[in-house]
Amino acid sequence: MGRTNVIDGSKLAAALRQRVGEIAAQLHRETGIMPGLATVLVGEDPASQVYIRSKGRACTASGIAAFDIRFPLDVAERRLVAEVERLNRDGRIDGILVQLPLPAQIDAQRIISVIDPAKDVDGFHPFNIGRLWSGLPTMVPCTPQGCLRLLRTVHDELSGADAVILGRSNIVGKPLAALLVAANCTVTMVHSRTKDIPDICRRADILIAAAGRPRMVGAGWIKPDASVIDVGINPVVGPDGRNRVVGDVDYEPVAAIAGAITPVPGGVGPMTIACLLLNTLLAACRRRGLPDPLL
Ligand code: NAD
């Protein structure tokens, strides 16, 4: 067994963000276009507020205009629909991101379906999901895209690898399955109703944990030298009584067996934001019939 390769998501994300910034600057110089991202936040959930703030800061740092739109928790669904329709028409806006989860009175799927697919930088619109599964150019959802980019830093070839995805959500597990199938992996999805999950995970060359369960994946689940991507972001109280964030993987013991692993924080999280910036830049180019920047 070789030394574990700790995949540095922060470093990779910083490089991607810088590249997006350079291309955005060139686009602005040559055409006067400045890509724009509108984020829509309903309510005052502290975690969502942190995400929205960091997305806004990241935009500004990469030369993307940020439009921060907020609604109170009790906003009516029709008001939110009207706002998304307004953003669809607004020529300054290339990307629209509605922060999930939404409160119970709002049908999140309805809101997602109202977003113009050309501005759907999260890649959650059914039109874009269909294109993803069909292997057509689309908006690739940010977190799965980040996972794939991280995997490619340690795998020259993904073809034929056994990949197991823990979690089947619409935002992580399912689109990631589409990407890994397209990369010729043999994909198994496990979820809350799956029997013998550790047994299945032990067969994985690539294990992606996205269940939202702190340190669920133990060392006994890991095939020696497997690549482990930890998507989980779970707030916990540490032994010192302070709040911290852990992944779905029990990091230290798993890192001793895995061939490569992403840390939390500093793994998938930063890549998600970098991919959001990239998708906004792509949307800005595609909406105007310009070729995709190579990234
Ligand atoms: P979700 O709750 O929508 O889905 C969780 C999935 O895990 C479900 O399919 C469920 O069946 C499965 N699951 C839950 N408990 C299980 C168990 N005990 N055994 C087997 N399967 C189980 O969550 P989500 O939105 O996909 O997010 C998952 C995790 O990833 C969360 O911790 C979330 O915070 C994190 N996340 C991180 C990023 C990032 O940028 N790093 C982005 C999105 C989500």
What can you see in these coordinates?
The longest helix is centred in the first third of the chain and has 23 residues. With 295 residues, the protein is α/β, with parallel strands linked by helices. 40% of the residues lie in helices and 16% in strands. Strands 1-11-8-7-5-6 form a six-stranded parallel β-sheet. Strands 3-2-4 form a three-stranded parallel β-sheet, sandwiched between helices. Strands 9-10 form a two-stranded antiparallel ribbon. The relative contact order is 0.17. It folds into two domains: 84 residues, Rossmann fold (3-Layer(aba) Sandwich); 128 residues, Rossmann fold (3-Layer(aba) Sandwich). The chain starts with a strand and ends in an 8-residue tail after the last helix. It binds nicotinamide-adenine-dinucleotide.
Short description:
This protein is about 40% helix and about 15% strand. The chain is α/β, with parallel strands linked by helices.
Main sheet properties: 6 strands, parallel
**Based on DSSP secondary structure assignment, what is the total number of beta strands?**
11
- What is the CATH first-level class name of the largest domain? Alpha Beta
Contiguous helical run count: 10
Order of secondary-structure elements? EHEHEHEHHHEHEHEEEEHEH
User: What structural class results from the helix and strand content?
Assistant: alpha/beta
Fourth CATH level, the homologous superfamily of the largest domain: NAD(P)-binding Rossmann-like Domain
- Per CATH, which architecture of the largest domain? 3-Layer(aba) Sandwich
Distance between the termini: 33 Å
Shape category? globular
Residues in helices, as a percent range:
40-55%
Q: Provide the low-confidence segments as ranges.
A: none
- Tell me the count of domains: 2
Strand order of the largest sheet: 1-11-8-7-5-6
Which band does the percent of strand residues land in? Answer: 15-25%
